[in-house]
């Protein structure tokens, strides 16, 4: 049985859908969710829906009963190292044959503040002795395309990423990679560096939005400190603004760029082009 944690989230739902499309019987998929009621539609299709709250380890032990493979989808920043360790402990107790984890690109060397929790989680997974696969994801295209309408209205993208290239891919691409790992007998104790086939800069993103929308959108590169202050001025909490500014500073240094080709090899198809993602967002 395959467990997908965070199954009611954006990525988790896509993984479950991909598993079903690959022919995994619904009854052999466990959709683990903090609020099972949100997965009622999956239950109606025969998927096993079980409560799994990262902050309540007793629910994890029950959710993982009978599991052979577990996908740990990372939780939100905050208390996630402890939450992830609870999942790792439950997977270990269940004796699963594979633990896959959605990490961040080059987690072992990535200097982003966001990477620290992933580094700690990866270390805990390795120390557990479980067979593992680390799915080190670059950025989701949706990080930008979800704001496309606002970017068009503003006529600008503000950032501090310089000419740093971003190997963005759609959530569906990363979900397909996770499903491929969960349904194959591929190598274990490995890390995949996952990213889109064609990287882009924020200047290129602005140009793509301009072309697709017919409205001028420019990229405005700011010093990191100025970007952070502008986000605070726009109403973001200081800690969140600092986190986002740190992401851009590290993008400028190449932290979210990879030319590994791992993502398209795992999925067996090209990754979603930026142009397609922008066009879809403008139609939404």
From TrEMBL:
GO terms for molecular function: NAD(P)H dehydrogenase (quinone) activity. InterPro entries: NAD(P)-bd_dom, NAD(P)-bd_dom_sf, NmrA-type_oxidoreductase. Pfam families: NAD_binding_10. Keywords: Oxidoreductase. Gene3D superfamilies: NAD(P)-binding Rossmann-like Domain, UDP-galactose 4-epimerase, domain 1. Its EC number is 1.6.5.2. It comes from the Bacteria. Residues 6-183 form the NAD(P)-binding domain. This is NAD(P)H dehydrogenase (Quinone). It comes from Catenuloplanes nepalensis. The lineage of its organism: Bacteria, Bacillati, Actinomycetota, Actinomycetes, Micromonosporales.
